[in-house]
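I'd like us to work through together how a protein chain folds, taking it slowly. To get us started, please write out a protein record for me. Go ahead whenever you are ready, and we will take it from there:
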Amino acid sequence: MTGSFLAAPHGKLPADSHRRAVVKLDDGSDVAYRDVRRFGTWLVLEDYELDEYLAARLGEEPLDARFTTGRLAQRLAGRRAPVKAALLDQRTVAGLGNIYVDEALWYAGVHPFRPAGGLDADDVAAVHRAIRRALRIGIKRQGATLSDYRTPNGGRGRMQDEFKVYGRAGEPCLRCGTLLEKTRVAGRGTSYCPGCQR
């Protein structure tokens, strides 16, 4: 969410009142975890506990080969919740946050309030492709720096320069020209195009 990691040689981490943990690596360097809003959780598990713990809480990694259109369809089947809420649910797909769900739904042309279980096969395939597209762009741009997010070397992400809908309410849609709108879905600010996300 707003947490970040910073890697530095041992003893070279800058002072930070929002640092929540420091991991010392085998090479002597440090990795600090910074979390202003305290959304993150750290848990120490034995190797044999990990698979069961994650399987109960997370869907597939969206860029993994196991994340298929069919698997996404299974996770959405029968869900009456809006598709945006279903995609934010980490049991559906691991690691999707508000920004990337808005962007993916825009790429797919799917309205965020559509019932997740009501998507047809073509819609699910479009959402599947769009999730991967949005995440690949985000990775290439090293995430979005909107306030305090930093890359592990302390730099700023550049994904915010690529936003198609997120944070652009009132501006014209880059695809159809309709003014983008903002609403709330599952308690989260949600930007979408009323013209091409029906």
Q: What stands out?
A: The chain has two domains: 1-42, 60-192. The first strand starts at residue 4 and ends at 8. The two ends are 28 Å apart (CA to CA).
